[in-house]
């Protein structure tokens, strides 16, 4: 048996203590990062930096606010835009909003209206940590956009995504953003209402928006609305205010809408939605024709390569004598009432390519149902839904 001298034993003890101290120091500095989820799309993982949060059933409201802000605010960025002058009446300028880091690749989720028309972009992670950014994808119809930033890994703190389908009115929420340029401001409140329809700048209706009384002001746009566990449940987008300031009525785009379209924005740069391939006209806009029903959308024309044409739906036609034959009038899809173009957009927004939908139409005064397999849009031009 090999025997150790007293000096050797002392040396081994000192080296072991030194190794243990270095290990603890390294874990204290980098161990938290090693335990963070690598992507915000991992809903089952604990939120980044929130593993040590006090159980909300026993934590005070103040403690919960402090812990959520401390854990999540490093992943909330200020989005700064610059627009070049485009003429005498357009001098250009600067703007700002908020955004959330959604993965360790540097992708940032924000509002489309925050970066719309910008010639250059940068994001700030606090202090002097400012980096140039580029647009990866835009979806004006949901007012969402994804940016990309190249930054050191120790700066990238992911904001985890929650589930907006499980929310209830009265639930506590927290908003982090940069209102009026004030870096990383926290406001709190509750969910005041659910399933609120709000309108994007394109005129399209964003269904199911979250209403909150947490103060949201200019500059908060694009920032996260969080639950008490630090998970993003919405993207702060609009306020209802006669004077332009917060009056306790703010709206956030549900995070589940974002989760559905983010992969397309990253891979394709835009959202390619299933379409019927029709030029629709709301019946309320039709003049001079006797109609068999009062509500629905008239198929004015078909895209010959679209879903509706392949299924045999009919558009408006003109006879050799100049008479007009009315096209099909769509009144419902899969039992959901269709009254105008927004209803059609809302229904198709939830469908996938190659899915077969049952389209209820009025044709020559009679109701019939036509199965239609949804295809992506084949060519660009006027808006077709």
Q: How is the largest sheet built, in terms of strand order? A: 1-2-3-6-5-4
Helix content: 10-25%
Outline the low-pLDDT stretches. Answer: 1-10, 17-40, 42-49, 379-385
Strand content: 25-35%
Please give the CATH architecture of the largest domain.
Answer: Beta Barrel
CATH topology of the largest domain: Thrombin, subunit H
Rg for CA atoms? 27 Å
CATH domain class of the largest domain: Mainly Beta
Kindly give the count of domains.
2
Q: Let me know the average pLDDT.
A: 83
* Overall geometry: elongated
- Separate helix tally: 6
End-to-end C-alpha gap? 84 Å
DSSP strand tally: 22
Please summarize the sheet with the most strands: 6 strands, antiparallel, barrel
Can you walk me through this structure?
The protein is of the alpha+beta class. The protein folds into two domains: 34-271, Thrombin, subunit H; 274-376, Pdz3 Domain (Roll), CATH 2.30.42. It is built from six helices and 22 strands. Strands 1-2-3-6-5-4 form a six-stranded antiparallel barrel. The chain has a six-stranded antiparallel barrel with strand order 7-8-9-12-11-10. A hairpin with a 5-residue loop joins strand 16 (317-318) and strand 17 (324-325).
């Amino acid at each position: 048996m090999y025997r150790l001298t007293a000096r050797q034993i002392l040396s081994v003890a000192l080296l072991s203590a030194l190794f243990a101290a270095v290990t603890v120091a390294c874990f204290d500095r980098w161990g938290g990062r090693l335990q963070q989820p690598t992507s915000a799309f991992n809903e089952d993982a604990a939120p980044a930096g929130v593993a040590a949060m006090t159980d909300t059933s026993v934590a005070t409201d103040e403690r919960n606010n402090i812990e959520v802000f401390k854990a999540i605010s490093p992943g909330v960025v200020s989005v700064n835009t610059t627009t070049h002058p485009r003429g005498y009446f357009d001098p250009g300028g600067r703007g700002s909003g908020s955004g959330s880091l959604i993965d360790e690749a540097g992708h940032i989720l924000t509002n489309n209206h925050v970066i719309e028309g910008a010639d250059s972009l940068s994001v700030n992670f606090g202090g002097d940590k400012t980096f140039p950014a580029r647009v990866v994808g835009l979806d004006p119809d949901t007012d969402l956009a994804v940016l990309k930033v190249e930054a050191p890994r120790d700066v990238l703190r992911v904001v985890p995504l929650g589930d907006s389908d499980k929310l209830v009115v009265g639930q506590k929420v927290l908003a982090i953003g940069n209102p009026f340029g004030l870096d990383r401001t926290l406001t709190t409140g509750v969910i005041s209402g659910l399933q609120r329809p709000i309108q994007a700048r394109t005129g399209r209706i964003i269904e199911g928006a979250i209403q909150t009384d947490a103060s949201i002001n200019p500059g908060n746009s694009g920032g996260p609305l969080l639950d008490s566990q630090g998970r993003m449940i919405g993207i702060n987008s609009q306020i209802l205010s006669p004077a332009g300031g917060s009056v306790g009525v703010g709206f956030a785009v549900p995070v589940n809408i974002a989760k559905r379209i983010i992969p397309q924005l990253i891979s394709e740069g835009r959202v390619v939605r299933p379409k019927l391939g029709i030029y629709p006209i709301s019946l309320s806009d039709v003049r001079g024709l006797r109609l068999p029903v009062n509500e629905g959308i008239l198929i004015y024309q078909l895209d010959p390569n679209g879903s509706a044409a392949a299924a045999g739906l009919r558009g408006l036609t003109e006879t050799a004598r100049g008479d007009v034959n009315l096209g099909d009038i769509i009144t419902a899809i899969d039992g959901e009432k269709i009254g105008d173009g927004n209803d059609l957009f809302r229904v198709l927004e939830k469908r996938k390519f190659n899915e077969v939908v049952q389209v209820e139409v009025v044709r020559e005064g009679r109701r019939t149902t036509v199965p239609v397999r949804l295809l992506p849009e084949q060519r660009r031009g006027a808006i077709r839904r």
